[in-house]
Amino acid sequence: MSRLRKKPEINKQSIIEAFAEMAKYKGIDRDLLQGILEDTLSLLIRKKYGNEANFEIIVNMEKGDIEIYLMKTIVEEVEDSTIEISLNEAKKISEEEYELGDDFVIEISLQSIGENFGRRLVNLATQSLTQRIKEVEKNNIYNEYFAKIGEVLIGEIYQIRRNDLLIMHNKIEMHMPREHQIPTESMRYKKNQNIKSVIHEVRKNGPAGLPEIILSRANNKFLERLFEIEIPEIYDGLIQIRAIARDPGRRSKVAVQSFDDRVDPVGACVGMKGVRIHSIVRELNNENIDLIEYSDNIATFIIRALQPAQVKEIQLFPDTLSANIYVTDDQVPLAIGTNGQNIRLASLLTGYNLTLIKEAVDDIEITEFDQEIGVELIEKLVALGVKTAREFLNTEPEVLLEIEGISASFINDIRRIILAEFEEDEDPHYQDKLENIK
Fold it and tell me: Class of the 295-359 domain?
């Protein structure tokens, strides 16, 4: 005679403990998880008994207990079995005394759910439960990191791809696209390497259904946060960063302002022997950082932003947020910078469109023409009082011809060289004087 195997009973406490552990592991509020479990069981009961079913579910997370009760009204003749039960049927089930109109309570065990509700209903409830938990987990991740946009975090590189890095932080996958990487350090990335970055953006629906968290090392906010970490005066509010312009990995300009007359904003950021700024530079793979003291006077601010170039004159057009910058010929390369970097960053920093104008040279020391004139003749000219190119052009020809070694043709040759430098034409009256002397 074969013996029937008794089906194992479902341990309610183990279910509750599993949910409590899930709440802890996934960071889901226990009360919220309890509500999800109650909703799932409600779905199961309504699918089995109909939407009109009158039932009550009690989940006690503290005691590890789940109770499900189905309530029906005792009637003489049943019209709707979902909410009614006949008096005779009630007496068959229970020995208690009942009267018409009483509530009849049927306890539904978890065991009966698995046995009597059908595999399809149980699977449906399981899918609903899983989906609800995923939604809660997704919202928790989104809310947590959306609130941290602009903050620095340290993650671990776990995959290096062509167009982005995949970074893990607290078991959450994050992305750093190529445009948010520092170009000069791409060859230094290694798997399992710790990397510091700032949370740039959080998108609710990423490719995998979870929130997509975008990290950046190239945006201005990352540089700003590094200053706050390394420079206590900025963190405490004594010094404020007013503007940042970056060419990531190559050069940055940072405008700082002090709210305490005793604190030099640039000096405080540099630190003793440059220790503070060097720490930031190392983190940015040796990115050059120009520190500029901010000024409310826009002309002064623009002049400082164009350093190391020396500006001779500035013409502002506030209505169009533009300015003409006048510099001498020798300052043009400094003002422009490598590949236009200096003037471009200065424009970004100040918010003004800057146009560089080379100013005509007023005068040049005569010693600048030593190769054309010769050191010996220059010494004689200086002794005569001719110390600049303009003075040479304005000196009467008969005076110059008195100097030993200078001829009319020599004077003409030097004049052509100097006039070409000034981009000017020859004075015909001077030539007439020279011709008459000949």
Answer: alpha beta
